[in-house]
Amino acid sequence: MAVIIDGRAIAQKIREDAKRRTAALLERGIRPCLAVVLLGEDPASASYVNAKEKALAEAGMDSRDLRLPASTSEADLLALIASLNRDSLVHGILVQLPLPRHIREERVITAIDPAKDVDGFHPVSLGKLVLGQTGFIPCTPNGIAALLRELPITLNGAHAVVLGRSNIVGKPLAILLSRRDINATVTICHTGTKDLASITRQADILIAAAGKPALVSADMIKAGAAVIDVGVNRVEDPSAKKGWRLRGDVDFKAVSEKAAYITPVPGGVGPMTIAMLIRNVAEAAEQAGNLH
């Protein structure tokens, strides 16, 4: 039976560290501040934003809650980002994704000052990740790496299989895992992958980030593997109070009987994502104050 990885407990340690760093910044007259921009009233996005702002407050940081109608034009959003770039009291800028269809996501991401790109999505941030330079790393991949470092497993030379190739999780995670400080051998699988199960069964570490509930079954993993479930899928469930439940990309019950380690959904990767965001905001504030 797999050991369930407690993402909340590991995330709390990272958040406590960010809180200590914030206290040191406050002594120097610097209060870390994240501007959070949300367009529209999508319940899931609003829930994510609320969780991030609560974490900021608990760390002693400020947040600017900028909620705009879904009809906001791309030009107006870009103008807002430009003003936040110029604001010395704002250390990080986060535009909650996804955006309304009439706004080009790429234009918005590249408009953010890389020094305030605490999401780690800017081409400059991703370029630094590829080159092994210091910069903001996307929060979910960085959180997954932190989870793996907490496990009593050998990362050096391990075969890690990543299901998914998104710019937010799959691609940056594959690069991060292959860097020398982790040194895993990485395979990326996607919709064009043939005989998926034959590849996933080779994985010492399997990361599921495909966005398909219960995609990974027990016969797709090697006994003793570490399984990290990034999926957050709403599945209809009439017995649930809200009429739905969150399900990951992994068949948790079946896979947990075969894997050595597994993350739950919720309570696994999600808390780590927020913790890494808080850490990045502290880092941005330190850099702005020339404290590095």
Compact overview of the structure:
The protein is α/β, with parallel strands linked by helices and 292 residues long. The chain contains ten helices and eleven strands. The longest helix is centred in the first third of the chain and has 21 residues, at 7-27.
Q: Provide the structure class.
A: alpha/beta
CATH class of the largest domain: Alpha Beta
How many runs of DSSP E, i.e. beta strands? 11
Shape: globular
Task: Give the strand order, joined by hyphens, for the main sheet.
Answer: 1-11-8-7-5-6
Question: How would a textbook summarize the main sheet?
Answer: 6 strands, parallel
Number of domains: 2
Number of helices, counting only DSSP H or I runs of 4 residues or more: 10
CATH architecture of the largest domain: 3-Layer(aba) Sandwich
Write the CATH homologous superfamily of the largest domain.
Answer: NAD(P)-binding Rossmann-like Domain
Q: Look up the CATH topology of the largest domain.
A: Rossmann fold
- Share of residues in helices: 40-55%
Q: Look at the structure and give the mean pLDDT.
A: 95
Radius of gyration: 19 Å
Order of H and E elements: EHEHEHEHHHEHEHEEEEHEH
Distance between the termini: 44 Å
Low-confidence stretches: none
* Beta-strand residue fraction: 15-25%
Explain what this protein looks like in three dimensions.
By secondary structure, this protein is α/β, with parallel strands linked by helices. The chain folds into 2 domains: 29-113, 3-Layer(aba) Sandwich (Rossmann fold), CATH 3.40.50.10860; 139-270, NAD(P)-binding Rossmann-like Domain (Rossmann fold, 3-Layer(aba) Sandwich). The protein is 40% helix and 16% strand. It has 10 helices and 11 strands. The chain has helices at residues 7-27, 43-58, 74-86, 105-111, 123-131, 139-150, 170-178, 196-200, 252-256, 269-288, and strands spanning 3-4, 33-39, 62-68, 92-95, 159-163, 185-189, 205-208, 226-229, 233-236, 244-247, 261-262. Strands 1-11-8-7-5-6 form a 6-stranded parallel β-sheet. α1 (7-27) packs parallel to α10 (269-288), α6 packs across α7 and α6 (139-150) packs across α10. It is globular, with a radius of gyration of 19 Å. The mean pLDDT is 95.
